[in-house]
Design brief:
Number of helices: 9
Number of domains: 1
Shape: globular
Oligomer: single chain
Length: 274
Amino acid sequence: MPISLDFGEKVVVVVGGTSGINCGIAEVFAAQGAKVAVASRNQGKVDKTVNLLEDLGAEAMGFTADVREPEALEAGLEAVHQRFGDFDVVVSGAAGNFPALANDLSCNGFKAVVDIDLLGTFHVMKAAFSRLRKPGASVINISAPQAFLPMKGQIHVCAAKAGVDMITRTLALEWGSSGVRVNSIVPGPIDGTEGMARLATSDDARRKALDGVPLGRFGTPADVGNACLFLASELGSYITGTVLLVDGGWAQTNCGGVSEYLGALAARQAPHRD
């Protein structure tokens, strides 16, 4: 039987889908004919992204919500469900990050990243489950190499993203009997994104980052979107509980020494200590 990547009439929800990688993911599904809903904290960004997706020919909508606020997520996802029906694909991509050495990181700073990345992922999973198509839905969490590679200046992100991947693996076990698949994607250095701007703050930093990618190029949001498309399609129908690296081999080089760069950057930004 031929396998089709046609997502016509499929319902895709991308939380955090109004910028960077997540917006690219939304665009890829829109181009394949899906009905796409996006969410973020900024109404202006939501409106702009919905217009972009509609220009691609998709039926689209959006809502504002902070992933740290489960009631707002519930209300937004219910509005999407009322209009589009059961969700075929949910991508959870909200994230927060800033470089800070552990000794300079406040408890509130650590908590802020954990609340957005880890608790936020749990909130999205919790709110989405009753609205997923069963069987057949695909849930994709956007992770990061910090989930499995320790990095200086990233203790908060390392802890949070490791937790995200364990949410993925645990829900793959718990939701498998409902026919719902749950996977994580780990993007590499994706050009034109806020994360890349933080990673490579100068031409020299960009060259060093690129030197660490075996495939010799930066990724694009569409690269991550295409991986999501694969996981959500029939081609990925026997894949669950997997952490898929979409990074050009970057992790194989320990992310090109980014740990030392972020550690030095965090040290320069830290308040003076006697």
